[in-house]
Amino acid sequence: MARTANVFARVEPELKEQAESVLDQLGIPMSNAVGMFLRQIVLQKGIPFEMKLPRTAPLTYGSLTKEQFDKEIEKGMSDVKAGRVYSADAIEAEMKRDFGI
């Protein structure tokens, strides 16, 4: 058996229980999941997922400069051209879920 080292982490009990529930369904012990996370940190040379602050509200026209607005419009046009479109119902559901509106 390979040598191992201990890692101690303090987490909220609810978070631990929720994570264990998901991992149990996947058949992965918590210690293996932590090891997988650490391996990915080494392979990626950083945190293996994007980290950013969530937006508290959708962008509004008044909050953007002309350049920012133009950039957002260009992104939208690129999405339309590439076929990345969503129904109004899907957008409304996402807005309710993410922003409560």
Task: Give the arrangement of secondary structure elements.
Blueprint: H1 13-26, H2 30-44, H3 66-81, H4 88-99
Task: Describe the 3D structure.
Keywords: Toxin-antitoxin system. It comes from Roseburia intestinalis L1-82. The chain has 101 residues and is mostly helical. The protein folds into 2 domains: 13-44, no CATH class; 61-99, no CATH class. It is built from 4 helices and no strands. It has helices at 13-26, 30-44, 66-81, 88-99. The chain starts with 12 loop residues before the first helix and ends with a helix. The mean pLDDT is 90.
Which key phrases capture this entry?
101 residues; mainly alpha
Tell me briefly what this model is.
With 101 residues, the protein is an all-alpha fold. Helices cover 56% and strands 0% of the residues.
Overall mean pLDDT stands at 90
Instruction: Give the class from helix and strand content and strand pairing.
Output: mainly alpha
Order of helices and strands: HHHH
- The total strand number stands at 0
- First-last Cα distance: 54 Å
Unreliable parts: none
Radius of gyration: 21 Å
User: Per the principal axes of the C-alpha atoms, what is the gross shape?
Assistant: elongated
InterPro entries: Arc_rbn_hlx_hlx, RelB/DinJ
Keywords: Toxin-antitoxin system
Protein name: Antitoxin DinJ
Family: Belongs to the RelB/DinJ antitoxin family.
